[in-house]
C-alpha cells in the first residue's frame, strides 16, 4: 500500500525536514508515526547512511514502529532493528546493520553506557516525549539524564506526543531542553519555574507542600517562545467533525501466550473444516475462549474466577488515557473479568450501572474513565456531554451493539448537543487473533464464517 500524506501529515513532514530539532504535538490517530517515517525516508534520499534511533514505550518500540514500516510499500526497504529484550538480545540487535533502531525508555541508560564514546545515531526520535519531562540540571529521572548526555551529539531530535503538558506547563521545560539546551525556556528548570510561575503553599507548619501556578499570561508567553520549534496539529482543523475518527491500537501477545492461543485456534478451525456452522447467533459461544485470551484473561471452566494470560491491552489502554490528557474516556468491554482488571489498573474507573446519578456524573465530567458494556448503552441513553473519546477494550460480533455504543458519544450526538469537536473511536486489537476477524466483520458486515475462513492463515500463522 502506498503512503500518501494527508495535508496535516505533510505539514509535520515539512517541519521535520526544515528544522532538525522539532516537537510535533498531535493526538493519537493523527499519523505521527507514518509522517516521521516519511520524513526519514526523504532525508535518507540525500543521506543514505543516516542512522535513526527511535525511543518509545516498550509496546510501541517492539511492535508499532516495526509494523508501520511493513504497512507501507514506501518504507519496506528501510531495515529496522528492535533493541529490546535481555542484554544478549539487545547487543545482538544493536550490532545488526540497520537503518532504524527502536528501543524502550527503560533501556536508555544501558544503551548510553554500552555505546560510550561511539554514539552512532544521527537522528533521535522520542515517541511519547513527555517521558523526558523529568529532566533537571542536577537531578531528574535516570532515562532523561542519560539521554541528555548524548541528545546533542545527534544532529536531529524529533519529539512526538499528543499531550505535551499532561500535568501543566511545568512539564515542558525538560522536553524542550532536548531541542535547544534551554535557550528558549531557561538554562535550568529553576530559572523557568521562577520566570513563569509563582509558589502557593498548602498545609500547616508541621507538614506543608508548595504548588507552582503560572502567572497570568504565562501560557501565551511560553507558546510564543516555542512557536519555531513546535508544531501543533488539531484534528478539528482537518477533520469533518460530523465524522468519527477511528484508530487501531495494535498490541502483540507474549510469545508463549501466542503459542497457546494458536493451539486453541486450530481446534476452532478443525470444527469449521468438519462442517460446523458458525453464525452471528452462536459465534460468541464458539469463539469466546479465543476472544477472552486476546483480551488477557479466560474464565475458569467452573465459572468461578479467571486465569490471567497477559496485560498487553491494559498497557494499551493506559497509553490512550495518557494521550487523552485528562479528558474523560468511555471504555467498552465484552467480558466481566475485563471490568475487574481495568478497575484494578485504574482505580478511578467507574462502571456504568443502573443508578441515574452515574450518567449525570459522567456528563458533568466527574468520571475520568467510564466502563460500559454495549448492551447497557441502549437507545435513548445520552453520554455525549461527558466526553468524545471511546475505546473498545474488546469487541463482540454484534454490529448492532457495536454501532449502539458509538452512537452514544459519536459525531452525530456531539453535533446535536452543540459540541464542535470530533469523536475518537479507538480499537485495542491483539495482532494475529480473532480481534482482527471481529473488526473485519464489523467493518464489512460480512458473514462470520466467511471472515473466519479468510483470516485463517493470519490467525494460525505458519504452524
TrEMBL record:
GO molecular function: ATP binding; helicase activity; hydrolase activity
Cited InterPro entries: Helicase_ATP-bd, P-loop_NTPase, SNF2-like_sf, SNF2_N
Signal peptide start-end: none
Iron found in the keyword field: no
Record's keyword terms, sorted: ATP-binding, Helicase, Hydrolase, Nucleotide-binding
A Pfam family hit: SNF2-rel_dom
Top-rank taxon, per record: Bacteria
GO biological process, one term: DNA repair
Cross-referenced PROSITE patterns: HELICASE_ATP_BIND_1
Domain called Helicase ATP-binding: residue spans: 13-182
Protein name: DEAD/DEAH box helicase
Amino acid at each position: 500500500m502506498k503512503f500518501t500524506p494527508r495535508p496535516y501529515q505533510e505539514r509535520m513532514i515539512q517541519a521535520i525536514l526544515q528544522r532538525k530539532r522539532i516537537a510535533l504535538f498531535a493526538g493519537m490517530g493523527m499519523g505521527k508515526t507514518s509522517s516521521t517515517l516519511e520524513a526519514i525516508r526523504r532525508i535518507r534520499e540525500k543521506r543514505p547512511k543516516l542512522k535513526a534511533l527511535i525511543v518509545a514505550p516498550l509496546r510501541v518500540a517492539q511492535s508499532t514502529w516495526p509494523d508501520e514500516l511493513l504497512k507501507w510499500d514506501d518504507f519496506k526497504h528501510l531495515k529496522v532493528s528492535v533493541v529490546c529484550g535481555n542484554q544478549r538480545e539487545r547487543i545482538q540487535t544493536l550490532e545488526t546493520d540497520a537503518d532504524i533502531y527502536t528501543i524502550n525508555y527503560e533501556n536508555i541508560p544501558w544503551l548510553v553506557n554500552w555505546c560510550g564514546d561511539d554514539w552512532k545515531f544521527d537522528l533521535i526520535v522520542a515517541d511519547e516525549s513527555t517521558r523526558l519531562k523529568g529532566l533537571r540540571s542536577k537531578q531528574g529521572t535516570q532515562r532523561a539524564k542519560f539521554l541528555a548526555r548524548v541528545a546533542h551529539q545527534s544532529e536531529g531530535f524529533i519529539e512526538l506526543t499528543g499531550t505535551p503538558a499532561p500535568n501543566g506547563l511545568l512539564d515542558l521545560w525538560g522536553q524542550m531542553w532536548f531541542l535547544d539546551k534551554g535557550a528558549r525556556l531557561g538554562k535550568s528548570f529553576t530559572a523557568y519555574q521562577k520566570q513563569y510561575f509563582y509558589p502557593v503553599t498548602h498545609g500547616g507548619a508541621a507538614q506543608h507542600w508548595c504548588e507552582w501556578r503560572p502567572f497570568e499570561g504565562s501560557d501565551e508567553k511560553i507558546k510564543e517562545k516555542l512557536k519555531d520549534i513546535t508544531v501543533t496539529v488539531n484534528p478539528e482543523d482537518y477533520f469533518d467533525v460530523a465524522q468519527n475518527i477511528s484508530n487501531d491500537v495494535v498490541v502483540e501477545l507474549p510469545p508463549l501466550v501466542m503459542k497457546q492461543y494458536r493451539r486453541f485456534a486450530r481446534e476452532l478451525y478443525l470444527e469449521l473444516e468438519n462442517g460446523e456452522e458458525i453464525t452471528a447467533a452462536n459465534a460468541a459461544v464458539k469463539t469466546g475462549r479465543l476472544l477472552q485470551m486476546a483480551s488477557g484473561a479466560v474464565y475458569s471452566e467452573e465459572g468461578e474466577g479467571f486465569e490471567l494470560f497477559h496485560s498487553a491491552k491494559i498497557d494499551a489502554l493506559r497509553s490512550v488515557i495518557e494521550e487523552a490528557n485528562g479528558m474523560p474516556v468511555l471504555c467498552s468491554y465484552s467480558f466481566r473479568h475485563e471490568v475487574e482488571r481495568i478497575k484494578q489498573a485504574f482505580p478511578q474507573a467507574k462502571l456504568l450501572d443502573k443508578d441515574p446519578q452515574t450518567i449525570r456524573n459522567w456528563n458533568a465530567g466527574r468520571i475520568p474513565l467510564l466502563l460500559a458494556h454495549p448492551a447497557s448503552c441502549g437507545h435513548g441513553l445520552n453520554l455525549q456531554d461527558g466526553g468524545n473519546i471511546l475505546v473498545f477494550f474488546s469487541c463482540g460480533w454484534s454490529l448492532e451493539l457495536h454501532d449502539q455504543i458509538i452512537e452514544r458519544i459519536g459525531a452525530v450526538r456531539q453535533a446535536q448537543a452543540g459540541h464542535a469537536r470530533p469523536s475518537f473511536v479507538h480499537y485495542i486489537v491483539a495482532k494475529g487473533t480473532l480481534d482482527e476477524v471481529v473488526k473485519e466483520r464489523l467493518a464489512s458486515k460480512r458473514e462470520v464464517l466467511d471472515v473466519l475462513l479468510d483470516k485463517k492463515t493470519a490467525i494460525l500463522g505458519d504452524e
